[in-house]
Amino acid sequence: MKLSQIALKINCRFVSSRDVEITGIAGIENAGPGDLTFVANRKYIPYIKKTRASAIILGEDIPEVDSPSLRTEDPYLAFARALELFYVPLIPEKGIHPTAAVSDEAEIGPDPSIGAYAVIGKGCKIGAHVCLHPHVVLYPDVSIGADCILHSFVVVRERCRIGNSVILQNGAVIGADGFGFAPTKDGAFYKISQTGRVVIEDDVEIGANTTIDRAAVGETVIRRGTKLDNLVQIGHGSQVGENSVVAAQAGLAGSTQLGRGVWVGGQVGFAGHLKVGDRAVITAQSGTSHDIAPGTIVSGSPAFENASWLRSSAAFAKLPDLVRKVRRLESEVEKLKNSLKNPK
Amino acid sequence: MKLSQIALKINCRFVSSRDVEITGIAGIENAGPGDLTFVANRKYIPYIKKTRASAIILGEDIPEVDSPSLRTEDPYLAFARALELFYVPLIPEKGIHPTAAVSDEAEIGPDPSIGAYAVIGKGCKIGAHVCLHPHVVLYPDVSIGADCILHSFVVVRERCRIGNSVILQNGAVIGADGFGFAPTKDGAFYKISQTGRVVIEDDVEIGANTTIDRAAVGETVIRRGTKLDNLVQIGHGSQVGENSVVAAQAGLAGSTQLGRGVWVGGQVGFAGHLKVGDRAVITAQSGTSHDIAPGTIVSGSPAFENASWLRSSAAFAKLPDLVRKVRRLESEVEKLKNSLKNPK
Amino acid sequence: MKLSQIALKINCRFVSSRDVEITGIAGIENAGPGDLTFVANRKYIPYIKKTRASAIILGEDIPEVDSPSLRTEDPYLAFARALELFYVPLIPEKGIHPTAAVSDEAEIGPDPSIGAYAVIGKGCKIGAHVCLHPHVVLYPDVSIGADCILHSFVVVRERCRIGNSVILQNGAVIGADGFGFAPTKDGAFYKISQTGRVVIEDDVEIGANTTIDRAAVGETVIRRGTKLDNLVQIGHGSQVGENSVVAAQAGLAGSTQLGRGVWVGGQVGFAGHLKVGDRAVITAQSGTSHDIAPGTIVSGSPAFENASWLRSSAAFAKLPDLVRKVRRLESEVEKLKNSLKNPK
Question: N or C: which end of chain C has fewer CB within 10 A?
Fold first, then answer.
């Protein structure tokens, strides 16, 4: 496909004295002749000169380059669209595989794609154009909206509700029992029935092997448009607001409430029973047992304001120096005190 | 059900001038008319006035309230029992599903409930009233006690032993190979056969997608009454003592020994080959490569005594201040020294 | 088996005035009469006197002992080989189980062992002597080399490539979609097609429930001989060099490049778009958003040189002391200033 054609299809400004033939898309370090690449992260600007790509998608703010380029205000989005021009996605087989165990008391919408050994319990309701890859298990009374994709080894437990256009990556566990136990006098634990469910709204994507626990009472909720990465833990009764992102291996203990547009870094931990305001950012590996105000960026464990944490972290690396300085000051002050007591 | 009746059934003191009809149980923030709610965490006391619940379960220590209430020394346990009065649990179908692949050389106890596509290897022994949900896999020579519940996508590897009344949530992996490799001279690794097994005692619950590795030799053991949350990692040869709790995403490297009644917070890490004493508490995101004394509360990475860690953490947040103070002191001491050398 | 025979088989020096009959292998704390044990970690030297084992494998550097012993430069490797003399490994049934759903358009090499309910998509190519345990799913166009073992609930997604002699533990997810979303102006996210794949080279082992994401473009690569523990997250487009080890619950964000022979501790986090040099060591729970130089040992979050971090950590534990010292210095300097202003 000609670069000029791609420009039209992905809505970019074509900047080149000559048109070039593009045969694929590649990352800037691996791209070769025929490839279109992109720079969305400023860290990769130095690679622009070195890349062997035939053309580059660039932000409007990046200085002029020699190579043929496509300019746009949002190079990452343009790259996403360019990818789709060259990519043949996996198309699962239509219909219900003969080995799928579908309850007679389940309702399946039109145009399903249900793979081998899928299990659909009684009382389940599945919307139109839903794809269940092989080995997906739906416990009884689950509802799945239209246009969802559930990958192999996804399980959705009894009575949970999945919205429309939701993608569940392999091994995601939706609605396992929350971790609720009442300690008894003899030191043992009494299991608290987890009577609630999980509700996942439209346009959510859940990563591989992520676990979202059902609520003890009420609902654990993942709101519209939110994306969770792999191996994330969402405790019972928690809520994640609209259009939030939670990176891999982060964990929310029970009854955590994240607002809208919250960004959670990898391996972050929330202690539960707390609120995080809209558009807050919690950087990787941070942890908090307190509320986070809207719009703030916090870091560290325990977490506090990011700019301040950066200064504290820099000082931490020089802490042995500080200890030495204080020791020297103590000895000098001691000498000064002696000099004053015994002036020469 | 009348509130007075519930009081009798869950063994609480009925405190109200009027009886009320209860139709459900709910969390204090979401409860509406007809609901019974509870306060077990003091953080929720302010909600008592605001809740729309018809009645509240309260600890004996909480001040008098206007709403109809049930009093008890253990409101969380009472809540757990109240839940059971209104909750219809999932009842799996009895019998062995025709698609289950059960070895002729396996022994299945009375009254089983074995779901679609379950696999039971040869030499397995399954106790009475066991429920294997669809897609549970037991490798050969596994033994499962009575009254266990294994959820979909649980796997128990060869020769592992599960006690009575054990619950394994979805995706838990019991007995995968431990991470044991001997480095060789050429920089590669020689796999150490993981010849041992995992033993899980009675009344244990294991969370979703948690992994418990088999021992290289001997046993990895989870003792009676212990509860592990989701995505926990238990390394080969480790032991977790009776009635301990391990929160989500915590990890024990190999040969870690936790005592009885130990509480491990979320995302905690143990470096392996160490001992944690009975009733020790390790707060969330802490990490240790040293033994922890019985009954102590530790925090931080590396972890030390919690009260002390709280003070250090508070000081950390003000570290840039401290650096400035020391710099100012240095300049003042310098001035003092000069003044003494050159008195006016 | 006689100890002297074992010495020959595992290539150790036999040091004993009498030969003994060995019936099993055990850890030093649990060993009993008839057992051969070993000491590879110096932490266990004190147990040599206490063990009830009949014989011990010891490094050449360890002082003389009373018990019959086998001496070698590499006691851990010798232990690994001794284990194999007494261990009967799991031998899966040969052939293709009648319930396996194997596409007519898949190629299966000689001598397969394919378990119940395995699913092999069209276009897959499977090498010789491969074992797929029950409930393994291969999406279309996957290639698997010779002598691989894939445990139950492993999934390999479309077009991914697995080399020879690879072991995938239960629940490992190879090739799920990477976490790639372009933010849009209305605050939502546009999914970036993850058009690449995962390549796993020869002799790699991947732990239980570990997730390795497919690249947006190009490949996520795990190079020859590398071992990943359980619950590890490898982001899209990352590379792990040859003969590296990554301990449990560590995470690499996208486009992280680890060199050869890198050792990553448990729960470590890499922020992505960074390089870690050959033979670097990143200790448990550390985190970095910067490159790590070859051969360095780093610790902490943010991580820096280990020896320095150890000093900073020691100082951190005494930080409240330091604050008090500075406060006292301030007051003493104030007094000194006053004394100088108002000399007696």
Answer: C
